[in-house]
């Protein structure tokens, strides 16, 4: 009798203290994710994850924009508890390179935070759902697809123009800024970012891929407003754009 009681108690304690025994249903973290479009990111992190009950596994990669480093393909394993994924990254030799956690930011976005200090992965980044991730419909009420320019604004010191395409919450395209006195011409800049609500959060890069400025696009009456959120002197601080 004592033996049976001991076995039952041991089983209960095992369930309480085992992280993988946490009741967790659904597939919150199943799908393909990428930080592309996060204008605060210093590189591109991708994850392809599969969640079965409380178990997470998959693969990840990180390519830095600052030093062009590449983590290579990393395996990802972990578990889910209270809607937070606790994950470990290993290289192709099976060596642990980093730990972190992921959480649901909103219906289309995950938030990754590294709990170690390796430079092989970002400290924090947002990850946007792709393909098989549920609820990937755009949360934007406005489409920024089209051509824009502040030409016609007599108070402007130069002409800034955009050629943009929006697909879901992802936005990309090109931009150019040229001052009226011909002292500055940025050439063709690439523009990437994401749209949340009615606001587009964008990052400008030159032809070498270097980040030169960040900004936002937003509705301004029947037109579109631009505001720079950095302090670059090669783009205007703000502008009203017309189609």
Question: Can you characterise this structure?
Answer:
The chain is mainly β and 243 residues long. 7% of the residues lie in helices and 50% in strands.
Derived structural class? mainly beta
Secondary-structure element series: HEEEEEEEEEEEEEEEE
Helices, by number, come to: 1
Q: Using only CA atoms, what is the Rg?
A: 23 Å
Ends distance: 82 Å
Q: Sketch the major β-sheet.
A: 8 strands, antiparallel, barrel
Q: How would you state the average pLDDT, rounded?
A: 83
Point out poorly predicted stretches: 5-25, 131-140
Strand residue content: over 45%
Q: Share of helix among residues?
A: under 10%
* Mass-distribution shape: elongated
Count of extended strands: 16
Strand order of the largest sheet: 1-2-3-4-5-6-7-8
Task: Based on the model shown, name its key terms.
243 residues; mainly beta; 8-stranded antiparallel barrel; 8-stranded antiparallel sheet; 16 strands
Task: Spell out the blueprint of helices and strands.
Elements: H1 2-17, E1 31-34, E2 43-52, E3 55-64, E4 74-81, E5 84-90, E6 96-106, E7 109-114, E8 124-130, E9 146-149, E10 158-167, E11 170-179, E12 189-196, E13 199-205, E14 211-220, E15 223-228, E16 238-241
Antiparallel strand pairs: 1-2, 1-8, 2-3, 3-4, 4-5, 5-6, 6-7, 7-8, 9-10, 10-11, 11-12, 12-13, 13-14, 14-15, 15-16
Summarize the structure.
Helix content is 7%, strand content 50%. It is mainly beta and 243 residues long. It starts with a helix and ends with a strand.
